[in-house]
Amino acid sequence: MTDTTSPELPDAARDGRLSYAIFQLARAHRGHAAAMLRALNLHPGQELLLMQLFDRDGRTQAELLERVGLDHSTVSKSLRRMQEAGLLTREPAAHDRRVMVVSLTDAGRALREPIADMWRTLEQISVRDLTPDQVEMFTTCARIIEKSVRDHSRQAPAE
């Protein structure tokens, strides 16, 4: 039997047990991933941009923004840092100088396998005490919850 204990649930979160568990999980997972990314001289989120470019190099900045689901300022800052680190280039598109095309450099392309290895290792750590059926069920539930939250965010008026 695995140890499923976690920090004691605060009284204020009693009616939000699932949300509190998601928060704790996301925090632990992101923290571990961040440490693994630091070993590759990357910041969290930069690997997501790189993975999109691994799949199709030469995407526009707007395409990357849409694909990774991060806000504009975060993506712009990440791309600037990655350009300064020599991992990618950003150049105006031939068809419209206002559109920026993002392309990998050789140094950026060289991170493909290290990033794939990092995600593989993180996955092994994450699922080590789960059965394949539990992994499938969790993944399905996580996607349903994510869709519900995103749909609600789109419908909710700005406060």
User: What global shape is seen?
Assistant: globular
Order of helices and strands: HHEHHEEHHH
Helicity, as a percent range: 55-70%
- Count the E strands: 3
Biggest sheet statistics: 3 strands, antiparallel
What's the Cα radius of gyration?
19 Å
Number of DSSP helical runs: 7
Q: What topology, given as strand order, has the largest sheet?
A: 1-3-2
Low-confidence stretches: none
Please report the distance between the alpha carbons of the first and last residues.
45 Å
How would you concisely characterize the structure shown here?
The chain is 61% helix and 8% strand. It has helices at residues 17-38, 46-55, 61-68, 72-84, 106-109, 112-127, 132-155, and strands at 59-60, 88-92, 100-104.
List the helices and strands and how they pair.
Layout: H1 17-38, H2 46-55, E1 59-60, H3 61-68, H4 72-84, E2 88-92, E3 100-104, H5 106-109, H6 112-127, H7 132-155
Antiparallel strand pairs: 1-3, 2-3
Describe the structure.
There is one protein chain. The chain is mainly alpha-helical and 159 residues long. It has seven helices and three strands; from the N terminus they run H-H-E-H-H-E-E-H-H-H. A three-stranded antiparallel β-sheet has the order 1-3-2. Helix 1 (17-38) packs antiparallel against helix 6 (112-127). The longest helix is centred in the last third of the chain and has 24 residues, at 132-155. The mean pLDDT is 91.
Notable traits:
159 residues, mainly alpha, three-stranded antiparallel beta sheet, 3 strands
